[in-house]
Amino acid sequence: MTFSLSNQCARHFCQFITSRVPSRQTTLSALFTQAAPSSASSTFHSNSQLQQIRGAQTMPMMQSAQDSTASALNDLFDAEARNMLTPTAIVDQLDRYIVGQPEAKRAVAIALRNRWRRQQLPGQVRDEVIPKNILMIGPTGCGKTEIARRLAKLVNAPFIKVEATKYTELGYVGKDVEDIVKDLVEASVSLVRQRLRERMAAATAEKAEALILEGMVGKHADKSVLDAFRDMYRCGSLDEHTVSLDLPQSDNKKMNFENGIIMLDSFLRSDRAFGGSGKRQENKKQMKVREARAAIEEQESEKVMQSDFVTKEAIRAAEEDGIVFIDEIDKIVDGKSGRMGGSVSSEGVQRDLLPIIEGSVVQTKYGNVTTDHVLFICSGAFHKAKPSDMLAELQGRLPIRVELKGLGANEMYRILTEPDANMIKQQQALLATEGVDLEFTDAALRALSQAAETANRFLDNIGARRLHTVLERILADVSFSAPEKVEEARKSGLERFHYLVDEKKVAEIMEPLLKKQDLSRYVL
Ligand SMILES: Nc1ncnc2c1ncn2[C@@H]1O[C@H](COP(=O)(O)OP(=O)(O)OP(=O)(O)O)[C@@H](O)[C@H]1O
């Protein structure tokens, strides 16, 4: 079995050998069949020779892996970072992604801060404080969902968006309103799992490293040897090398969860087993280092994923931090006829939604979930019905009303150019992967925004979503032919293909389309 060492690693390793372990120099140097700094890689034989260097002491790495895992789990939702999120800081963050709509941003920032304030209160008062839910009123595509979604992301809150029209009065065919809470818990479970994975990444990597190195150099290897192997492991030189590992059984017992503190019993037990003191079924496996790393990391995170901690934390996060965005609430409001979609009473759906928004307990497969402190953000255009047509009780539960403005050409231009990772940057990044340098003149961006606004006026007003269709239209040619264009450019000695979108190009593509409204209905 052979494995490769990159130049850098080889140099690193040689320096290490000569500077730190002169007594082992001959043995370790003999492992290299080739260590010329100019060669692309160095090769040395492994398994049998590795046996020669197995020696003295093992590093106390297990303990540090456990410590970092425990701390990763205990600060899963960045409590410290949340403390810093004042309303001003929240609005500043939202400004990075959403153009304008200052009132709506302020309203959600206050709602979020109120949540934090509530969590600082002593138990009894805390339970009395109910969230002030929000009603966003504004045309389609003006940023209502985006504000709520970004807000949730900012604080890692479980978030779901639902369409009010999907829910029907109890007893009718359709989704049951309780599904809202069930979906929220599912979102919360996914979020907790994802956060755990991210948080445990360092700890599981550390654990994998410790186990693999132990498998390679033995439990009693000299510290200097272990350090040398760690250097090689970290620069990937051992990836293709085979290691024999005593993997823990995957059916580890679930972790316990008591008083909000995770008991890492089973985790520690499995570590002890690796130290040789625990009694455990033998499960020796030969595998490549890179496979072993993936297997250990997966197994370590699965141990936590299957624990009670995930469900308990998911329910807590849904109850305390959950945000439910109910879109098209105006579609279940019809003051005059009291009918929705010709079949089910809109008032009935509103009545069904009420207990969820007011606060009730819903049974889910993960356990009971109380909705008292879930933040509900309802939204609608309210072109026909008015907010005052809603059931009085529902109106009372949505005390914060904010109006969002429709988007004109100027806002469209800002949406195109201002947010982090805006549409233009995205397109440039996509085409750059092919070797295309995409450039827009400022006049082209203005013309494009104007065309989007005109299309919204003549066709349906779909807000900023129109920018996507217009931009796709303008870039359709270069998107299709990018590989060939780059090839041609390279043949003529250029590294990359430059594609300029100027005002003229926008006019050439958009003007004929905007003149033929029948056609633009399909392509824009
Ligand atoms: N003010 C804005 N700033 C930045 N992007 C925006 C803005 N308004 C809309 N967008 C973009 O347009 C798209 C649609 O926006 P969003 O989903 O927020 O619409 P909405 O107001 O919730 O409408 P609907 O009720 O139809 O869902 C999203 O991709 C969003 O990023």
From TrEMBL:
Q: Which GO terms describe its cellular component?
A: HslUV protease complex
CDD domains on file: RecA-like_HslU
Q: Which UniProt keywords apply?
A: ATP-binding, Chaperone, Nucleotide-binding
Taxonomic source organism: Chlamydomonas eustigma
Q: Which family does it belong to?
A: Belongs to the ClpX chaperone family. HslU subfamily.
Annotated AAA+ ATPase domain residues? 130-408
Question: What sequence ranges are listed for the domain Clp ATPase C-terminal?
Answer: 407-507
NCBIfam families per the UniProt record, alphabetical? hslU, PRK05201.1
Q: Which PANTHER family match?
A: ATP-DEPENDENT CLP PROTEASE ATP-BINDING SUBUNIT CLPX-LIKE, MITOCHONDRIAL-RELATED, ATP-DEPENDENT PROTEASE ATPASE SUBUNIT HSLU
Name of the protein: AAA+ ATPase domain-containing protein
InterPro entries documented for this protein: AAA+_ATPase, ATP-dep_Clp_protease_ClpX, ATPase_AAA_core, Clp_ATPase_C, HslU, P-loop_NTPase
Q: Which GO terms describe its molecular function?
A: ATP binding; ATP hydrolysis activity; peptidase activity
Q: Where is the signal peptide?
A: none
Q: Name one Pfam family in it.
A: ClpB_D2-small
Q: What's a single GO BP term from this record?
A: proteolysis involved in protein catabolic process
Q: Which domain of life is it from?
A: Eukaryota
